[in-house]
Amino acid sequence: MSGVAEILAAELTPSKEEVLRAWWPNFQEKGAFRLVDPAGEVGIDFVIGTDEADRYLQLPVTYRSAELDGGSVGQLEHSVLGTRYLTKATYDPVAVGEIVRVILAGDNEAQRSDAKPQILKIKGSGQTPSTEVTEVVIEDASEERVFANAKINGVGRSFELRLPRRLLPVKYLRASRVPSPRNITGVFSDSEEPLVIAELIWRDL
Fold first, then answer.
1. Is the C-alpha dihedral spanning 201, 179, 143, 32 positive or negative?
2. Backbone angles phi and psi of 22, in degrees to 5
3. Rg (CA), the chain
4. What contacts 10, CB < 8 A, 6 or more positions away?
5. Which spans in 39-164 are helix H?
6. What range(s) does the Maltokinase N-terminal cap domain occupy (predicted)?
7. Which backbone phi and psi does 173 adopt, to 5 degrees?
8. What are the helix (H) ranges across 60-189?
9. I need a labelling partner for 197 at 20 to 30 A (CA). Which of 32, 155, 159, 182 fits?
C-alpha cells in the first residue's frame, strides 16, 4: 500500500475542477486516486473524468507550495495550506519517482485519511516491495510522457514513463502494440476490465 494520503477539510478557490477545465475544456471530473510523496510535501492526484464524447481521461497533477519550471496547470487557494500550485505530473520529479516506485514495487493506490472511496483500484506490475527511487532528474517532458534518470535501489537508470491521457483497456493496447511489462493498471469498482494507467520503459538496456 502506497501509504495514507492526508486529506484536509478545506475550501478551494477556484475549485480544482475549474483549474483543470482551463487545461482540458469540457472535462467532467468523476473521481480520483492518490499517491503519496514520501517526504509529505507534494500532493499527487490522478484525477479521472470524461470528455465531451464521454470517454474516460486521466489528468495526473501535483500540488506544491512553490511553482516548478514547466508543466504549470494553474494555482488555487487552499483554506488551510494557502496557495497551491498545480503541475502536470510528468513535469514533477516527485510524482515521476513515486509512479516508478509503484510500478516496480507492485504497489497500489494510497489510502485516504478521510476513508473516502477512490475511483480506481490500481496495481503495479512489479514484485519488489522494497524498491526505492531517488535522485530523479527529468530530461524532457510532455503531457503524456517523460524521459528521466533516477537511482533505482542505488543503481542509476534511464527510463521513459508514459501516462496516457485516454484510459483504454489493456486488450485494446495489445491490438496495436506490445505493452510494456512494467506498468500500472487500474479497474473501476463496477468492472473487471484493466485499464492502462502508466508504462515504464528502460532506456539503457
1. negative
2. -65, -30
3. 16
4. 78, 79, 80, 81
5. 93-105
6. 27-92
7. -65, -40
8. 93-105, 170-176
9. 155
Which amino acid, one-letter code, is at 109? E
* Peptide bond preceding 14 in cis form (omega within 30 of 0): yes
In 10 A of CB 99, how many CB atoms?
26
Integer CA distances (angstroms), 136 to 96, 149, 182, 196, in order: 8, 6, 18, 23
CB within 8 A of 181, min separation 6: which ones?
Answer: 125
End-to-end CA distance of the chain: 29
Report yes or no: 39 and 146 within 8 Å, Cβ to Cβ: no
Q: In whole angstroms, what is the distance from residue 78 CA to residue 46 CA?
A: 18
pLDDT digits (tens, 9 = 90+) for 83-133: 989 999 999 999 999 999 999 999 999 887 777 778 899 999 999 999 999
Q: What is the pLDDT of residues 31-55, one digit of tens each?
A: 999 999 988 889 999 999 999 999 9
The cell for 92 is 514533477
Three cell numbers, residue 147: 524521459
CB-based burial of residue 67 (10 Å sphere; 0-12 exposed, 13-18 middle, 19+ buried)? middle
Helices (H), 30-108: 93-105
pTM above 0.90, yes or no: yes
Question: In angstroms, how far is CA 44 from the centroid of its own chain?
Answer: 6
Q: What are phi and psi of 109, to 5 degrees?
A: -70, 160
